[in-house]
Amino acid sequence: MLGTMSEEFDVVIIGGGVAGLSAALVLGRARRKVAVIDGGTPRNAPAAHAHGFLTRDGIPPKELLEIGREEVRAYDVEIIDDVVHRLRHDKAVELASGRVVGGRRIVVTTGLADELPDVPGVAERFGADVLHCPYCHGWEVRDQRFGVLATSEKSVHQALIVWQWSKDLTFFTHTQQLSAEDRAKLTGLGVRLVDGKVSELAVENDRLTGVRLVDGEFVERDVVFVGPKFVPHDRLLAQVGCARTESGSIAVDAQGRTNVDGVWAAGNVVDPMAQLVVAAGDAYRMATALNFDLVLEDQGATLASA
């Protein structure tokens, strides 16, 4: 049984990461009535620190979000700690608690999940010494013994990038077949190639010690980079029929509008490659466009009633 509509907002933002909070900050300062709904499971929770966010480099992710929440509350933004069960076509949002809130506009900033390779040790060490982004964590592990676990056609590209942070680099082909051209690219940089399927990442005393292959070979490594499959949390957008691009991601225009009237999106849910600072910036830009969209609607309503 549906709950009753508890309150109507100008904007309901689903997702309280940096994108959602950035949008909330802009809209709150624009004197809009805003609610941010967040279930409390940020993607970067496994990481000890967030990097590359100017003035906040090295901050624990949880602390970054706490600061963001404090800032938006100063502009009367309501933070609702709850999980969204359903987004309706009438722009009402049903929460797990039974509460229902509505918005003139809905913003979805629900991010994504990292689908990790099914190799023992990867999930357990992810965010510590199993990493995916050298721009996020490369400085902290620079000059250590690196490995790259190949899981897709993008793994060679990843290896070419992480080589910038350590020249002691081993590329584990795992389940991938490398072309002669890719092999030449890697070996030309001095990257060691190890063929054969990986059976596990070895861990001792709460740290990665190396990579073990199914044939028993063991290669000592301090850090392993992997390429997760990015899976956007776009279920709610799909519920209301948002169109997708040819690649399968939710389609938005340059300002963040979906094809569904009143529904906007920003951050990793539409751009899986966006880093924290990029997601925050994109959400800022989206929020300014959304506010003007509301301005035009307010103006039209005023003229109609005159």
Automatic annotation (TrEMBL):
Keywords: Flavoprotein, Oxidoreductase. InterPro entries: FAD/NAD-bd_sf, FAD/NAD-binding_dom, Ferredoxin-NADP_redctase_2. The keyword Plastid does not apply. The keyword Oxidoreductase applies. It comes from the Bacteria. Pfam families: Pyr_redox_2 (PF07992). One of its GO terms (molecular function) is thioredoxin-disulfide reductase (NADPH) activity. Residues 9-280 form the FAD/NAD(P)-binding domain. It catalyses: [thioredoxin]-dithiol + NADP(+) = [thioredoxin]-disulfide + NADPH + H(+). PANTHER family: THIOREDOXIN REDUCTASE 1-RELATED-RELATED. This is FAD/NAD(P)-binding domain-containing protein. It comes from Amycolatopsis japonica.
